[in-house]
Write a structure and sequence with these properties.
4-stranded antiparallel sheet, 7-stranded mixed sheet, single chain, alpha/beta, 17% strand
């Protein structure tokens, strides 16, 4: 049983501009000006990408970094005298693009006015007294967290629109590669390929479903654990960070309030119904009365900590599993070794895992078609 696990590196290998860095570059044009004016996450991500330069931004880890900062901001902390700081106005000039959550305190203004929030804990529909400014009325500390989450969902919806407009609606050209799953000793493989996709795009389906080549003919069965791009307003894409401890205690750190749990991928997978795809795949791996020997082929996924829990579960659910990790350079190879060891432990890595250069002529998963 072959299970292909893919991340954004799979799209990048096929020359598709689906990374967050590609999107943020595109956000500088006129089509996204409105969102750049009023969406704090977009402003912050663009600022961070400028700081990082050529290095691509890891949005999931950046969201966590922001949460760690925000939980210490007095204006949004719950309890005691701190809660008396609300209501407040969050005010910033619309044309400010060099925005960072690190300085969020400077944009809060105490107010004695009460604005209609329509039973919500914040409102953006208030009389603006500062010409050219974007203002948000924060009624309660939780109101600011709710506002930020709604803004992150708006960012996610705009990203969905970008992918749909720039990738999905454009015709995929014929792949320059042969998809080969024969590295487990087989000369050729024909049949079902279960694809656990951490991508939002359907690249693997479009390029390889039903295609026959020297490596085999594949029937792609995709499972989108973080949702799939669509052309409707009902966006179910999951964009968040790894699970964090709400009860952590030490001399140097404070626990992250439960109210921030909405930013966790774990919560969003359940909230937007994408976890069911994952659960359905697990059922295929544990069918009673069958001896199943799954071979996982991981390509384009760094195995970073934002997906550790879900990867650990699927890698260890079947004791007969083998894991092929495909890398594109030596730096990626070293990271994969470290990350897979952290996920399943050194003993499991010793018995289950093989690392393979993804374009290797004999064992690679993406073999360049000779012209």
């Amino acid at each position: 049983m072959n299970i292909l696990i893919i991340g954004n590196g799979f799209d990048i290998a096929h020359d598709l501009k689906t990374s967050y860095k590609d999107f943020l570059e595109c956000c500088k044009n006129e089509d996204y000006k409105e969102y750049c004016n009023t969406n704090l996450w977009m402003k912050h991500f663009i600022t961070r990408q400028k700081e990082l330069g050529d290095t691509w931004i890891d949005l999931e880890n950046e969201i966590y970094r922001v949460i760690c900062k925000l939980k210490e901001v007095p204006a949004i902390r719950n309890g005691g005298v701190v809660s008396q700081l609300c209501p407040q106005l969050l005010t910033l000039p619309e044309n400010v693009y060099n925005f960072s959550f690190n300085k969020i305190e400077t944009y809060f203004k105490k107010t004695d006015k009460n604005y209609d929030t329509n039973e919500k804990e914040y409102s953006t529909d208030i009389p603006v007294t500062f010409a050219g400014d974007f203002c948000v009325y924060i009624k309660t500390p939780n109101g600011f967290i709710n506002f930020l989450y709604d803004q992150l969902r708006e960012f996610t919806q705009v990203f969905n629109s970008y992918l749909n407009k720039n990738v999905i609606l454009k015709s995929y050209s014929k792949s320059k590669y042969l998809l080969s799953l024969s590295s487990n000793g087989q000369q050729q493989y024909n049949g079902d390929v279960y694809v656990l996709s951490f991508n939002y795009t359907d690249t693997c389906e479009k390029l390889y479903n039903g295609c026959y080549n020297s490596s085999g003919k594949y029937n792609i069965k995709p499972y989108y654990v973080h949702g799939k791009v669509c052309n409707s307003t009902e966006c179910n894409l999951v964009l968040g960070t790894h699970s964090f401890d709400n009860n952590r205690t030490s001399s140097n750190t404070n626990p992250i309030p439960v109210d921030f749990n909405v930013f966790r991928k774990h919560n969003q997978r359940h909230r937007y119904g994408t976890i069911e795809n994952y659960q359905n795949l697990l059922m295929q791996l544990t069918l009673p009365g069958r001896i199943i020997k799954p071979v996982f082929h991981v390509i384009g996924h760094s195995l970073d900590k934002t997906d550790h829990n879900i990867l650990k579960h699927i890698f260890l659910i079947n004791k007969n599993a083998k894991i092929n990790l495909y890398y594109h350079n030596e730096e990626a190879q070293e990271k994969l070794i470290n990350n897979i060891t952290e996920i399943i432990g050194e003993e499991e890595v010793m018995t289950k895992v093989r690392l393979i250069y993804q374009h290797d002529k004999d064992r690679g998963i993406l073999k360049l078609i000779e012209q």
